[in-house]
Structure formats: structure tokens, C-alpha cells
Amino acid sequence: MRARRMLSLGAAASLVLSLAACSSPSPEVIPSAPVLDANAPVVAFYGDSYTRGTGASSPDKRWSTIVSAERGWREINRSENGLGFVNRRASMGPGLDDIPALVIDDDPDIVFVTMGLNDNFSYDRAADDIRAAIDSDLRRLRDGLPDARIVVVEPFWYTDDRPASVDVIAGWVEAAAERIDADHIGGASHWLDGHDADASDSWMASDGLHPNDTGYADMAKRMDAALRALDPPL
């Protein structure tokens, strides 16, 4: 069942890929609160469907928007379905084919990088490219945003079955974050453990691939605790 679901995620990513050609390059900007201070920190999120909030009943239920609302941040969500450090990068279409450049142009105060889940589906044929792209993306963000605080999150995962690539890619992400002096949040690949689509207490949406509102709320709670534990805390 889980093996079939992993294949289904790949198929879903292919479907999203075919739809992405019609995507707008505009970021999804969700007000984090009814009224934000004019000097509210601008926070850019560079991730995949788990940060875009796919599966949530509305964008304000996704973890990034919950965390931003709690902190009075002005959220710019640059996340895209199926995106990875390698996955979909060559097929995003005009305006979306270089999201790190868009994040740099946003000139945010804080950047979250929550990438890597989808690269597991390319690992067997593109491991070297994935590792190189992780370093390239993070170095570009640091060079382009020297004063921004960059928070790199261990790639999320969605089933109790874990291919070896999950931990390998997570290790590459952590090492690259250290090289650019970014904050790193570990353990995120385990945040949905025990609550996959086959679990009696599932936190997954009807597609079986993405968190539902309960799942995103728990991710927000865990992210909040992790951010408070940083030095200095966020």
C-alpha cells in the first residue's frame, strides 16, 4: 500500500508538472494578520507542496501562515507543488524557473528553505545533481541576501516507510546550511510519523499525500517550538 502511494505521489507530481505551465510567477502572499505594522519583518518561504499548504482547507491553515500570523510576519510564499532542489527545476516555466532569484528579489528579512522531499524520487539517477543543487541554492541565497536570517529545515517526509535517501538528503541539507552559517532545524522528516494515510489516526488529506488541517496545525506547533529553541530565538 505504501509503495503504491509513493508511486502515486510521483504521478501526482507529473500531473502538477503539466499544470505548472499555466502557473503565474506571482508569489502567494497571504496577510499574516488583519493589520500588520509597516515595519513587520518580510519572510519568504522557499519550499514544496508541504509549505505551499496543499491539502489544507485554506491557505491560512498551512503551517507557514500560522507561524507567520503568530509572529506578525509579512509572508511571501514562493513554494510550489512537486518542487525540489532538482525536481521540476527545468520545467517550471517562465517566471518560475528560478525561484531562488525571485526570493532574492523579494529582499526578505528572513528566508525559510524547506526543500528536499521530492528529490527522493530522483535520487537513484540524480544524487550528485541533488547534492550540488543544495549547495548552489543555499550559497546563492546567502550571497544575494547577506543580511537575511536563513532558516533551513530538514526535508519533510510523509510515510512511515523511509527510503535511505531521506536521511542522506537531510544530511546534505544540514551540511550545506552550516557552510552558509544558516540556522538549521532537524527532525522535521519525522513530524508526521505515525499519522500517514494508512494510520488509524491519519493527519493526511483525502489525496493521501499531503497533510490536512490537523497535520499542518501540528507542524506549525513543532515549528514554533523549534524556532523558539534557536539561538537567538525567532
Q: What would a concise description of this structure say?
A:
This protein is an alpha/beta fold and 234 residues long. It has helices at residues 2-20, 49-52, 63-71, 99-106, 123-144, 164-179, 213-228, and strands at residues 42-47, 74-77, 110-114, 149-153, 183-185.
Descriptive overview:
43% of the residues are buried. Helix 4 (99-106) packs parallel to helix 5. The chain has 234 residues and is α/β, with parallel strands linked by helices. Helices cover 40% and strands 10% of the residues. It is globular. Strands 2-1-3-4-5 form a 5-stranded parallel sheet, sandwiched between helices. Residues 1-25 have low confidence and may be disordered.
- The fraction of residues in strands falls at 5-15%
Query: Order of helices and strands, N to C?
Result: HEHHEHEHEHEH
- Largest sheet geometry: 5 strands, parallel
Kindly state the percentage of residues in helix.
40-55%
The termini sit apart by 39 Å
Total number of helices: 7
Q: Can you give keywords for this protein?
A:
five-stranded parallel β-sheet; globular; alpha/beta; 234 residues; 40% helix
Summarize the helices and strands and which ones pair or pack.
Layout: H1 2-20, E1 42-47, H2 49-52, H3 63-71, E2 74-77, H4 99-106, E3 110-114, H5 123-144, E4 149-153, H6 164-179, E5 183-185, H7 213-228
Parallel strand pairs: 1-2, 1-3, 3-4, 4-5
Helix pairs in contact: 3-7, 4-5, 5-6
